[in-house]
Fold:
Amino acid sequence: MVKIRAARPGEAAELGALVLRSKAYWGYDAEFLASCAAELRIRDGEVAERRIVVAEDADGGRVLGLASLEGGPPVARLGLLFVEPEAIGRGVGRRLYRDALRRAAGLGFRRLLIDADPHAAGFYRAMGALGSPRPGAPGAEEEPPAGLVRFEAVPAPLAPWAQAWTGGGPAVHVGNVAEYNAQFGDASLDPRQRAARHYACLAAFYSPSPGALVLPGAVPAGWIRRLGRLLEWEGVEVYDGLAQGGFGLPADAGLSDAVRARPALAGRLGGAGLPLVPWGLTAGFARLSGRPWRPCELRYESKSAAHGLFGRILADGGHPRILLPGQWPAPTRRAAARLLAARAAAGRATVLKSEHGVGGSGTTVVSPERVRAAGGARALLRTLPRGPLLVEEYVAGPADPREPRDLTYDGFVDGAGRVHEVGGAVMDVAGAGYRGATVGPGVVPAWALGPLLAFGEAVGRELSAAGYRGWFDVDFVADGSGRLAPTETNLRLTGPSIAFMVAARLDALRGAGHFVRIADRVELGARLPGAALDELCEVLERGCAELGAVFLPAIPTAAFDPAPWLGVLVAAHSGEALDAAEALVRAEALAVGAAFA
Structure:
């Protein structure tokens, strides 16, 4: 273990000698090192002024490296970062760099400039530092010293909303996705909740810093180690395979009750002093966490109740760029057929919705042509899941397919009832099926951002007044004429929320401005043995790093299904690198699938 502390003035000479030993590691001759000696010298009076810290062996107290953070706001410089030759490759440099970035953020620096030895260029790229300064940015007019390579980073503290979500520290993440879905009994969902068991893997990302994961199914042993290395998590405990029968529980028992059936585990999780974060609120989670259970909190998970809520907010007239589609309940299939047939006869497209559903399940977009091709409205309805339906006006999207159509607002209501804005995202939706989402600077078009944030906050205030506490989102479609139509609210974590969590973590680790994309299903084409999945992830991690991107396997367990797929996250500092990383991931996944098929 390594700990970071402030350097002491009396260590100046010793630290200067360490700097020269570290520089010599790259094979420079004595003459060159002598020419650098004056520039690299550390004087007693400079230690505090240059904000020098050291990395110290926590066991023996030996100094293994040092770094300086120099200058005054808004631009800081990483004047020194050197590691003892025998400690190179042991993570000391990474700890020093992350500490410098964290300190720069805390001191209010907007940019961190790094003039690196060419031999260290690969290290700084791996740390997320970017190339030479942007044109027009402070310091852009300066040339780096001869023989050095210029990098920069944008220091950022953990986002304020992430600080408020779990207090900025570790949390216990409870992957109760299937348990949450089951309480609504929607006919469009798989009764076995197989997909939900896979989506429980997203519990790794319920906050930027997990302390423990509680999972219903077994996960690959190396998966959390890979995530921990890439996101610099430490000491994450994993409790998996908990909702697979045993302990006197039925095979379909909820995850929360499965934990309670293990008193030692329940006591360990509850006594850790960490907040418990679920996918969504359930009666079982209330029993596990000791919070009051108020089923009425979740009433706006209903699509018709959410539509009514949207209407009440818009009745005040304060959201002129928000358009509410018409919606009509159809308690019987005969009633739904009449409504659908009338709309088709008038040449209007229709959205048919189940009262509940996830990821687009139970939602079908129906054109007049589709009604005719099916042989009429009643014949088409026979192909859909049983149960009551909502008939909703279809909102046509932008004419330009490059313009985002499906947008979402994410936020949460804290324990005191305060609404916290997280942000807006663009969703990838095919037909009515959700496939992923992208978050990042400028992802939501400028014309849409203000109305989206304002209406999302208004929904949050209503949820708070109704007693809801937790994460929520509001989904919208853009109508192509500068308006947004809200379609539903989800009172739980979501795919976009996972992307926001990862963006917050990477911004704090690697510098602000990350784009993050979650892709729900990357098809593999063949079931993979565990070793082959590990090898694929290694290939994808290296390939994305070469593009300046980060690859994170988000849902690994589906790779072993008869129809295998992989859920992934990719992140980068530019949209171009993000797109390239996703294309690489999909191509490599198909290639490895073809090899095993």
Summary: The two ends are 44 Å apart (CA to CA).
